[in-house]
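Minutes, structural biology subgroup

Action item carried over from last meeting: produce the structure token record for Amino acid ABC transporter ATP-binding protein (Paenibacillus puldeungensis). EB confirmed the sequence was re-checked against the source entry. Recorded below for completeness.
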Amino acid sequence: MAIIEVMNLKKSFGALEVLKDVSFSVEPSEVVAVIGPSGSGKSTMLRSIAHLEEVDGGSIRISGEYLVQNGQYASSSKVKQITAHMGMVFQHFNLFPHLTVRSNLELAPKLVRGLPAEEIRSKASVLLEKVGLLDKADVYPSHLSGGQKQRVAIARALMMSPEILLFDEPTSALDPELTGEVLQVMKQLAEERMTMVVVTHEMGFAREVADRVMFMADGEFIESGTPEQLLSRPQHERTKAFLNRVL
Ligand code: ADP
Ligand code: MG
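Output recorded by EB:
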């Protein structure tokens, strides 16, 4: 069974139709790279799955449970329960500047779950170790490079033990020499079979790590396939035109 099912999703901002009947699904442990021109609705689609935007129509099902069904949202307790399965990583990291790295990781679990402080603390240590930043636990985000900030953001997203991670251009704000360390962490998560949807401009990552690449343009899902199929043998003219510009 699919872990994410998006059916006939529609979303407008005022008169601007940003998602026009988007449908696709993601299998457990699948890594899907989403590519497409700027303004095509990729972030809106990802934010809608994470319930950071509400759609106007269509359905989103996470692990079999409807977040929204034919435009009708589940109850707020149900929505909370469903969104707890997902973590999101943003282009601009969105770390809390007034909190240390460790406190950035510990905040949400303390607020949401009320787990014992010792358990939360040891989990934070394990995850900082995993992204190679345990030695930065007590510093503030302003003392970190962009690549380090993004690795902290990934560790923070993992604190809630999500089954799905959504990434919105996680390396777009980084200097080129810092993208590798972030992609490496994401690659490791993929190897550990985390389900991931990654909006990205990194065609190398899409080719190397994604199971499937999905192309969006003008609020529509155009086509998807294995990296080899989509990047080397695209079927649609719009995909071909986009790839000719970026590859
Ligand atoms: P992408 O991530 O593919 O670049 P977005 O989903 O960010 O595309 O944006 C799609 C379109 O929706 C763009 O034209 C953008 O300007 C518009 N848009 C996005 N968010 C908002 C918002 N909160 N209010 C109004 N327009 C928005
Ligand atoms: Mg975007």
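Discussion: The chain has a mean pLDDT of 96.
Next step: EB to file the record with the rest of the batch.
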